[in-house]
């Protein structure tokens, strides 16, 4: 069971790492809120033929739990991405990477507060190792760069995004029991509806960049890879091993994003990136080994 969860979560974080590269490739080819809106338009169009029949059959469940589904779709799918793209207009990718490393900690704390789920010291050490790997990646192997970081409006709203996605991860624990096709379609529709105001604001502000060929390619990737496939796998990974253990894999996102930048964008691979990967994978392995022992 846990091996399947590892595969799902590794693919998820790889696809999310690719989303970081897609964001770089999207600059000047499609505007941020347009990208957020169009990715969910495409996601809904793709999911409709897959999930419409099961959604109709699961409609009584959806109707009873529509508020939970709307909150999960809005918080985890739309608001996180809208704030993430906005934050990058005010702060650096270094700050954002470090701030996202707080997600596993917030997930653990929230699970303890609301569900009294405990962790052991080995799992805490694993979390610290993964965060060290993220920070090493973010500061490009030079910890002295951390001393030059300045917090600003972008960092403040990015912390809101971190809280939202942590809440989404914990909230998956209380999602209604329904088939994955129905769940993904319902969440995608919620994301589409809540992304519309951001798109309309971008139009009103005159900041829309109509996608060109590259913009559409990025949109298609984010809709299929970073939205549908990754979210289905992340939800399944959460079901199999729980939010505490699954959330730790999130710290692989900046690592995979960096490695994919080397392969796709042509950036240079450095020794610190290899060390960061070892730290993150080592931290996950340590936490997972002890997490499995606690569930046996």
TrEMBL record:
Keywords: Membrane, Transmembrane, Transmembrane helix. Coiled coil: none annotated. InterPro entries: AA-Vitamin_Transporters (IPR050638), EamA_dom (IPR000620), EmrE-like (IPR037185). GO terms for cellular component: membrane. The chain crosses the membrane at residues 36-55, 67-88, 94-114, 121-139, 151-171, 183-201, 213-234, 246-265, 271-289. Pfam families: EamA (PF00892). Residues 4-137, 153-286 form the EamA domain. It is found in: Membrane. It is a multi-pass membrane protein. It comes from the Bacteria. Belongs to the EamA transporter family. This is EamA domain-containing protein. It comes from Mesorhizobium metallidurans STM 2683.
